[in-house]
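Summary for the funding panel

The consortium committed to producing paired sequence-structure records for every protein in the target list. Below we show the first two records in order, beginning with the earlier of the two.
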Amino acid sequence: TRHTQRVGVHCLAIAQQLQEGTHCNSDCTQQRHASRRESLQQLQGIQQSSQPQPQPHSRASKGKSRPATMGVPELEKQISEQGLKVKELKTAKADPDTIKAEVAVLLKLKQEITALDPNHPQAIVDKKKKKEKAKAPQGPSKKELRILAKQKKAAEDAAKAKEAEAASADVFGEPGVCMSASMTARRWTSVGAVGPHLIGSDVWVRARVHAVRAKGNLAFVVLRQGCFTVQGVASAPAIPKAMVAFLGKIPSESIVDVEASVASAQVSSTTQSDVELAIKKCFIVSKAVPDLPFQIVDASRNENDPKEGEVTVGLDTRLNHRVIDLRTPANQAIMRIRSAVPLLFASYLNDQGFTGVNSPKLLAGSSEGGSSVFKLEYFGRDCCLAQSPQLYKQMLSACADFERVYEIGPVFRAEDSNTRRHLCEFTGLDFEMAIYEHYYEVLDLFGKLFNHIFRTLQNKYSKELELVSQVYPFQPFKFLDKPLRISFAEGIALLREAGVTEEQQGAFDDLSTVNEKILGDLILEKYDTDFYIMDKYPLSIRPFYTMPDPATYKKVPAAEQLSNSYDIFMRGQEICSGAQRIHDHTLLMERVNHCHGDAGHGGPHPDSIKGYTDAFKFGAFPHGGGGVGLERVVMLFLDLTNIRKTSCFPRDPGRLTP
């Protein structure tokens, strides 16, 4: 019984303690040993009285001790009790033989229950069968079932997303690279053409994403094409909600195709301020990288009056990443105005009977003499890039009988001038014309030509001018119906009245940049014009081909002799230099030799321009003309602070790329 077992365990424990006591040192008392022996005798007596007495070995008595056979419930109970007994013995660290005997009883009970029910949980399982059972496929665990459930849901979500993508493929997405594989019947509308007259109509536009903002079921997209911007709006459920998220993730400066309905709206932040686009479809044509060198919004701010905390972009950064900089509406407008000037120049001169020509830019010598030329090797010979088409346009006009010619082309100046108004390469607008009596015929044409350009820019390019003024504020350019003309001497007199001394500006010295600006301010104040012509410059500061003034040539000291030459000014800065040219061969050679000689102020060696001078041996028309710098005209008309802003990819002494 359980009670008997407990007594046995206690006896064993006391016996161990007594054995340990035999090893005590001599200080242990006899009383302690006697007490332990007495306790052991008492426990042994209890154990003997608890054991059952031997019975006669009769079948009747044996049958009364335990039923011949027990059912499964009785066996389950005994197995449970025997199992607890074995566990307690092991916990108490009982005698191994005792534990072994009790384990044998437990096994006997399990054998009996196995005989009755081999599949019972307490049944003894054959090791071989147990291994086979372990190897047999088992059902998934709870963890595996959770994983399988998640995978199933993910697959269902992916299937739904694929279905949604297939359904949305016709309204938004990235079709891939345009490789001219097919054509559609789409009719495209430029952003600048989107206006109130299209309200209620559907349009297709291709533009850059200038800015985008998406939240919830609503997205705002500002589309930009060239100078012009328009706001687009997309909202669910009019479009799929996934499309709103798609729009919100498009990087700025990406190019998109948008189908939209034009709706009435008031949007002050875009050029198309009285309409907006209700977006129906959007496809990415070319995706921009997220990290731009600078933001177009930052480069589009008023650089003269930046607000606190606003980021502005410096000129060097702009020029280093010029293709990005040129995307700003203001720069788009500048370049459109720049494009208009030579077109207006050419169209006006065409109407006046001029012929467009192209002169060579590779020359055996310099165009006008001096050292400011880019030299290079030409098949083993020295040559240079043309400083000007000057000599060739004279030969074509006066000697080849074209009489009136113009050229629009590149000009190269190897001047190490790092100023805000100089470039090493710029576009020249040149013309040369035969005259009948006086070089004023040229000045009259110049005046009418520039008035035509100025009026057309103000009338037909008002939107572009407004866009420029938002970033580079300027005062409208002023000019008179009949352009103002003053002589060089009159200009010097105005400077003297303003306090400019002889030391600051000599009466026969070329005007300094500072004095040019002072004179321009004086003329604006006195005559209310930003455009004027000044003639009769000293002969000593003009090129060898300039016609001398008949009233002073060889009649006064050389330093005081004047010429039939002129400069044209905008906002107090020179944009054009011109003159009546020498058409007489004898006088021409006289001036060539004088300028090149010791008494002259510099000029080419006569042999280096022999082809030019010989052309005048065979008769030449009296003629005159001038050359205009396109970039300066644009810079001064818009009152920009730096000429580099008017060139797509400017070239100066420090910049050869991009």
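The next record, for a separate protein in the list, is shown here:
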Amino acid sequence: LSLPLRLAATPSRCRSVLLQLATHRMQRRLPAALLVAVGRAMTVGIKPQASLVPQLSTTSVLTFEEVAAIPRPGAQGPSMVKFSPDDRYVTYLGSVEAASLTRQLYVYDRETGSTSLVIAPREGSGEEKSFSKEEALRRERARIMSTGVTEYSWAKNACRLLVPMDGALFVQDGVAEGSADSFRRLFDPDAFPEVGTGPLLDAKLSDDGARCFFVWGGEVCVCEVGSAADECAPRRLTLGARGEEGRTNGLADYCAQEEMSRYSGYWPSPGGGSLVAFEEVDESHIPPFAIMNAGVDSPHEQNEQHRYPFAGAANPKVRLGVVRAGGAADVGEAAAPSEAPTWFDLSGPFGADSYLARVQWDCGGSSLLVQVESRDQRSLALLRCDAATGRVSTVLTEQSDTWVNLHDMLAPLRGGEELVWASERTGWRHLYVHSADGACLRALTSGEWCVEELLSVDEERGHVYFMGNPRAAPDGGPLAAGEYTERHLYRVRCDGSDPSPERLTAQAGLHSGIALSHDHSAFVDSCSSASEPVAAALAALPQPAASSARPAAAEKVLFSARAADARVASLGAVLRPPRFVSFPSSDGAVTLQAAVYEPDEAVFGHGPHPTVVSCYGGPHVQYVQNGWSLATADLRAQFLREQGFLVLKCDNRGSDR
């Protein structure tokens, strides 16, 4: 019906349209009532609100190119914010221009108050076309769209930076003035074909900065970090996967990357990384699946082959093992390990057909804490794996009638005698303290809200820092409607003596990318709301002696998208915040959150308006947020509103909060 109604706006076409419809009627393809209705619509002036088919405006402020552009206006701020090991410097990735995805590494000196550039990519490096197939797939699964300098890391206990770039690994000793002279490449990848070929993936420094680990040619490798460029000879720590189709060591399997948000497949032990746990993946038994990619120029690249694990079919076979990193004296002519790995049998709780969900070392480095999940995802077990003996024991289990949500909220207390653990045993995800053998000792949080992220444990001052949205404002009063659309920083007592979380962020909206200093005296907060684009600030954390009701005050504004992105001002006429509403689900079981983008009443009248419902529909993802990017900077919704559509963005009951 919409096609003839649109054509009705052109009188010269009315007769031909009616003639075609009449022909279809005579052939009994259309009911007579429809023909009468269309004819009446063509002869009587009908408002867009009545026909529910608005015409596209030719005076639109937004263009299709602007709607499709990434990053969205005012939505991109600093990323990968970190404090240096001595807490003097704040490093982060930022863009040269607000509308660019190309990132560079910057540093803010807390003592001098100055910001400077640390590392910039060479022209043409770090672009999409330069990535190998393996790198492109990892970026796609991790939802990484930035280019240039896309990752970096600090050694935990040494002022040394690691920057993978241009197909090689670079290190720099600190970011103080003059430290750029120490920027160097660890080794020339082309000089060691006997060790590996292809891209260097998932590089990590040991805690002391003396070793660099990475995956190369499907094997876990290591090199000692020397003081001069190209001095560090790499060597393999694992064997059996190089050159074998469908086999890898040290890379997360497809299920882990795509569905479980685990992007690493190996874990060096604390300290000097003397031991390395790794995941062995065998997917050779999974038949290749062809995916036609019509978006590439070469016809020879259009047919992609992937070993895709279909639902109900075979999954990759996964094993977890530990190998010794050894030292420089262990390097032989083949640069290969001389010691077999210690393997762990993880089949105890749920059999061999289960998922390796999470792996981390305990604080002493003698055992691993491993999470395995059943194939139906309704059961999860936390296991302790002894690195010396290979012995596996169960610490605790989680059960659900639907599915167990995976998380990264596990941290040791009291030297590993206790564990901070998140559980949804009450229907809401909260933090608990368990003994080393799994017994639940106390709850740290409670209520009808969810802890979303465990950030840090400060045992010296007795605090656990986390992200969430307890149903209390900074002054202790209730939040307004739409309370689940915000995200804030909180802390709570480790000993459980005060069950009321202390809110540390004051500004309404979505706080993300929080970075805490190692001494827990300051943090960097990136915040936005529907009325304010992204801004990042360094703030001091209130100390325990200060009033617990006073949120942290900004110490230094590091970035403001309103000032940096000219599009925020130029598109100001259409960047109008939506209206947040909530309503009960059809069965009355839950309250749903929604954002409404309403057309201009002066142009399109009171309504009813043609309506577009926008809903992700799957689990976890939350579209309705009091944040700039998903609310106000949603230019597709803004474009449709500008054309007379009402857009209803709604989160189903499976969303995260």
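Regarding this second record: The first strand starts at residue 79 and ends at 83. The chain has a mean pLDDT of 86.
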